[in-house]
Amino acid sequence: MSLLPDHVPGEAFAKASRFREDLFDCLTVRGDELFDLTDALLCADGPVTAPVDLTLVAEHRRGHGAMYDALNSGNVDAPRLRQVLADLPMPQAADGRLVLAVDVSNWLRPDAPTSAERLFCHVYGRSGRSSGQFIPGWPYSFVAALESGRTSWCQFLDAVRLGPDDDVAEVTAAQVRGVVEDLIETGRWHVGDRDILIVFDAGYDAPRMAHLLDGLPVEVLGRMRSDHVMRRPTPSLKEYALAYPQGGRRPKHGKEFRFAKPETWGDPDAATVQVTDRYGTARAMAWDRLHPRLTTRSAWIDHTGELPVIEGTLIRLQVDRLPGGGDPLPPWLWSSATGLSGEDVDVRWQAFLRRLDIEHTFRLMKQTLGWTRPKLRAPEAGDRWTWLIIAAHTQLRLTREAAADLHRPWEKPIEPARLTPARVRRGFRNLRPHLRCPARTPKPSTPGPGRPLGSNRRPVTHYDVGKTTRRPESIIERDSLRG
Question: DSSP per residue over 401-431, as a string?
Fold first, then answer.
């Protein structure tokens, strides 16, 4: 039995049923098959190894030909589905604000030369190697709302595949801007609420993301490389006159703050100490109003006018140990907010640690729901499959309050409030009869004639891997390319 024994949480079923109806409205072409395929994802026994195996699940009422046709020729109204996801109840942090995590997960396709728009994806630990490798695949940028506390749950809000012509920062900024606007439009954020905290990893330039997201009620929090150099605020006229009595032009940037040289740090503006269960004693130091010195190169090469001064708060976190062992190197975090108190600093580094929760969801998508298992040729088919995975994960989240623990005899029992997504999926087949199913019953039909003989002799196009647009690194290189 997969329902709670004392009562049936009708509110959870009502929310999940409403989402299923909205999801079906977003499946504009081959919607019945795509909906059945999503149910088969949730009701299959064990991990998904191939989409064709899902056609043997009882909840999938159509044949394998319909499944291939839906993935190759169906349609998912992604903008409408994003609004549906933004309208769902959002998890909030301990201080009541919305916390969104942005990260890239790769769908590796090293043996698919006939698949277009593949890029070289940076991965670690393949084939027993500890060093990084570049493997052809489809990188996807995900935006998810994080919960507070230790949990493996999050709410996906958007997924965008990065193409060969895309600038990652610009595409991600447009993606986040669309998500924030949807949250405001659906009433999940109101004027007067705390700014939405957007958490990035070290692969993003946090100050540039803050500049690209200017005008939104958001705060950017990102990890910085340990060899970075930032600048202190511009000295005031009085401070400069006292330091340089001989006069001269006041500099635009203050003194250097080198992450690798403690003698350049000075006294922090805020410092906190907390004792944690997983990391031991956590010591945080913060310096206010630090900014990078921008130059007209690389990402800022097309910027017109004077380069901006993007100030924020720099945070250094030092812990005693890591949960999995290893050397706990201190991470550097940069927040676009200034004037933070000690309590505010603790909220920022704790939110950054919560960003790691999205890694559990990526593992669930790949190992249990089989996100990267299909051998799809067209990248558009991969996009449809990705949205079905997100829809399936969202239904698990909406029905987790109605699920009981179906643990194996050798597994430890878990309280219903702490069930993982994989545990909720085990009993979804028994939850499904309590949910609405807008997909229509398939009509009886006879098998088609199949592919005519000799129609498979046309050679398939092979595609190159990598970026197709090379961006100049300097003004001289830019002008030479234009000339």
Answer: GGB-----TTSPP--GGG--HHHHHHTHHHH
Residue with tokens 């006041």: 250
Across the range 394-405, mean pLDDT stands at 92
CA 170 to chain centre: 15
CA distance 34 to 337: 43
Amino acid (one-letter) located at 460: V
The whole-angstrom separation of Cα 34 and Cα 391 is 11
Q: What is the SS3 assignment for 98? A: coil
| pTM greater than 0.70 (yes/no) | yes
Side chain identity, residue 392: A
Q: Would you call 10 exposed, middle or buried from its count of C-beta atoms within 10 A (0-12, 13-18, 19+)?
A: exposed
In angstroms, the CA 481 to CA 478 distance is 5
CA distance 278 to 410: 26
> What is the total residue count of the chain?
483
Listed residue (481, 458, 456) closest to 471, CA to CA: 481
User: 304, 302, 298, 300: which is closest to 473 by C-alpha?
Assistant: 298
Contacts of 177 (CB under 8 A, 6+ apart): 213, 216
Q: Residue 101: pLDDT band by 50, 70, 90 thresholds?
A: very high
pLDDT digits (tens, 9 = 90+) for 301-359: 888 888 999 999 999 999 998 887 777 889 999 999 999 999 999 999 999 998 988 99
The one-letter code for the residue type at 340 is L
For residue 427, what are the contacts with CB-CB under 8 A and spacing of at least 6? 2, 403, 404, 406
pLDDT of residue 478: 63
For residue 290, CA distances in Å to 229, 295, 305, 335, 447 come to: 10, 16, 22, 10, 68
State which amino acid sits at residue 415.
E
Residues 160, 161, 167, CA angle at the centre, nearest 5°? 95
For the stretch 417-440, pLDDT in tens is 789 999 999 999 999 999 999 999
Task: Tell me: pLDDT of 3 over 50.
Answer: no
Q: In whole angstroms, what is the distance from residue 187 CA to residue 86 CA?
A: 9
